[in-house]
Write a structure and sequence with these properties.
Helix content: 40-55%
Distance between the termini: 141 Å
Order of helices and strands: HHHHHHHHHHEEHHEHEHEEHH
Structural class: alpha/beta
Number of strands: 6
Largest sheet: 6 strands, mixed
Number of helices: 16
Strand order of the largest sheet: 1-3-2-4-6-5
Low-confidence stretches: 4-11, 69-85
Strand content: 5-15%
Shape: elongated
Length: 352
């Protein structure tokens, strides 16, 4: 019978006929109704927001009351008794109401697998940011390297000493390990008001035995150099060393002092220079030159010769050590040129 009803002229389809009678159906998606029911139970705030959105959009016409079906089962007789309606066009598609945003429950959020959508990870929701925002002190650089070295109170005491106190403290000095192998400290010798100050490296075997700098073959050569300059030991000339004790290696042979040994002993020489107040300094050898000028230990003497350097506003000339000249006789002429430069520098200094 339904096929016969659908083929009847003027009625089109069953859907058009029901719409013409005013009893057209209102289509609602089954899953949408279920989702709205769950949202009302779990997220009232989201439902309220959805209601506001629906109020802003045109409301769909309310469904018309259903017409009670006739008691007879003969649908053909019932439709024949009613007047034939005018042909109508198929109804336009009704706009679907906007779906409310899906707000997952808390338990659903935690159980859902994480998605990499470029946003913050889900575990951020469970963090206690109040506890994690405690201030953290980050050290700047290496504190051990940046911290200034503690001042040595002994250096200040040495800088205030006179000759008797200075000689006494050097004789009992134990500021470095060189004191363990010495026989005598070698303080220095000469005129304590001299205009010329000659500074060597450190005492050797003969100096350690006698307690005086530049004795033996190297000392005799130095005395000859002084005579050539019009000087002599103890007369307008003072002779000292960078360190006051003999440095030796494991076999007992002489060696250059280490930077630590130089740093421990240099305050004594600095106080000697301040007490003497010389006019010109002559550095004898590499160790004396780099220790006074603060240069790289790899700097050769050949790079320092021929130039008048400055040490605490005092002119300083560098030449070879007498012990080196004994092994390299061809460089004696170079040493004499250095001494001539020192004498020229001395003559150009203002009278004191």
């Amino acid at each position: 019978m339904s096929e016969e009803l659908n083929n009847r002229e003027g009625h089109g389809s069953s859907l058009a006929l029901l719409d013409a009678l005013g009893i057209g159906p209102v289509w609602v998606r089954r899953e949408l109704a279920a989702a709205e029911t769950m949202e009302v139970e779990t997220a009232p705030a989201a439902v309220a927001e959805a209601v506001e959105v629906r109020q802003e959009t045109p409301a769909a016409p309310a469904p018309r009351p259903a017409i009670q079906a006739p008691a007879t089962n003969d649908w053909e007789d019932a439709f024949a008794a009613s007047p034939a309606p005018a042909p109508v066009s198929p109804p336009a598609a009704r706009p679907m109401p906007p779906a409310a945003p899906h707000v997952p429950h808390v338990s659903e959020r935690r159980s859902a697998p994480p998605e990499d959508d470029g946003g913050p990870p889900a575990w951020l929701d469970e963090m206690d940011f109040a506890a994690s925002m405690e201030p953290v002190l980050i050290p700047h650089g290496d504190e051990e390297e940046d911290a200034p070295a503690p001042a040595d109170p002994m250096i200040a005491r040495i800088a205030a000493m006179e000759w008797p106190q200075l000689k006494e403290i050097v004789a009992d000095c134990r500021r470095c390990g060189l004191c363990n192998g010495r026989k005598n400290t070698v303080f220095g010798v000469g005129d304590e008001k001299a205009k010329w100050l000659f500074i060597g490296e450190g005492p050797g075997r003969n100096e350690d035995m006698q307690g005086e700098p530049f004795v033996g073959p190297a000392g005799k050569l130095l005395d000859n150099m002084l005579v050539a300059m019009g000087l002599k030991r103890g007369d307008n000339a003072y002779i000292a060393n960078i360190v006051k004790c003999r440095p030796t290696d494991g076999t007992g042979r002489d060696r250059p002092p280490s930077p630590q040994e130089v740093a421990a002993c240099l305050p004594y020489l600095q106080r000697q220079i301040a007490l003497i107040q010389p006019t010109v300094l002559v550095a004898l050898g590499k160790t004396a030159a780099i220790s006074l000028l603060g240069l790289d230990p790899a700097t050769p003497v050949s790079k320092l010769r021929g130039t008048v350097h400055r040490y605490q506003d005092l002119p300083l000339v560098v030449t070879y050590h007498p012990a080196y000249l004994l092994r390299t006789l061809g460089d004696k002429s170079k040493a004499w040129a250095d001494l001539c430069l020192a004498m020229t520098t001395y003559q150009r200094q203002p009278a004191q």
